[in-house]
Amino acid sequence: MSDTPLPETPVSGKPFSGKPLADRIAVVTGASRGIGRAASLALAEAGAHVIAVARTQGALEDLDDAVRAAGGSATLVPLDLCDYDAIDRLGAAIHERWGRLDVLVGNAGVLGKLMPLGHVDPKVWSSVMDVNVTANWRLIRSLDPLLRRSDAGRAVFVTSGAASSCRAYWGPYAVSKAALEALVRTYAAETASTPVRAMLLNPGPLRTAMRKAAMPGEDPETLRTPEDLAPHIVRLASPASTESGMIFDFPTGRVLTPQKPA
Ligand code: NAP
What we know:
The protein is of the alpha/beta class. It has helices at 34-45, 57-69, 84-97, 122-148, 162-165, 171-190, 209-214, 226-237; strands at 25-29, 49-54, 73-78, 103-106, 154-158, 197-202, 247-249, 254-256. Strands 3-2-1-4-5-6-7-8 form an 8-stranded mixed β-sheet, with helices on both faces. The structure holds NADP nicotinamide-adenine-dinucleotide phosphate. NADP nicotinamide-adenine-dinucleotide phosphate (NAP) binds at residues 29-30, 32-36, 54-56, 59, 80-82, 107-110, 131, 158, 160, 203, 205-206, 208-211.
């Protein structure tokens, strides 16, 4: 755990106490480990019923145990996000059971392989785009009507500094996150006159399996953890958070407004 105090930001306010998300319904993708698991647990502790999506059933069941131990509740959805019809079925099932969705955390992502653009296997390129971009578009396509039925629908998508740093060898991942940012900003524009708010979240380097794969020589103990980030996801998911179309940058604690052309 980092001891670094987080600065106040325009959307942060004071840390929540009590159950700020009581009775709210939240979908979290990539809930089986890393950022998604910590977010799911924090949302459940804040009172939300969490619909936890990932492929690894055993890890989802571990999450369910932790959620119950914390006094919360979850619905487990073992699902490959590249199965786009299954995303549509998820939307239909949420509509049938709850009739609305209050929170969508589009967190699941894959790194692909780090290598020069000219060496990237087309299958790797496609798989990164499928999970990091197309699945999030399909989630919006399926769940937007339900978010609009909430009194304060909140969508939070996890991006990366790679979207703008454009480092050598991170091509597919960087391109996918830049596309995700365009997707979410477009969705924010399309929902501007509704109660729905759509934000991006840049976690910065955190102690997860993905970071370990990207930086195998790094000492994980030097990194902040998904649990450090999770309260900010709870905050962005709450009706009190009203920014849209911007990036909450966890490393600096600032809300970044993307530059628009003149
Ligand atoms: P992680 O530990 O590797 O977790 C990735 C999650 O995505 C897992 O729960 C995985 O679940 C899920 N997932 C991947 N492919 C999927 C698929 N086809 N269908 C369903 N679920 C799938 O990664 P993380 O570090 O927590 O990353 C979470 C997000 O943060 C990602 O979008 C990542 O790009 C972003 N991010 C992370 C860092 C960092 O330093 N950690 C920095 C910047 C951005 P299953 O394998 O069980 O399906």
